[in-house]
Structure prediction request, 62 residues.
Amino acid sequence: MAVTVSLVALFGLVLFFLLRSRTVGYGSAFIAAGFGFFLASTGAATPINQLAQAVINAIPNL
Prediction:
């Protein structure tokens, strides 16, 4: 739960700065889509949450 809230805040902040700088591309589209999935908690949110958790768990092992 705490990771999801943190990711929503992170995606929201990144999306805000991308929109402010009028940067449009594949990266900004990914951030916007990720923000939407986490925020809405749709059926696609579960696999995205699992992927994010796997990445977060893998970071200390690098």
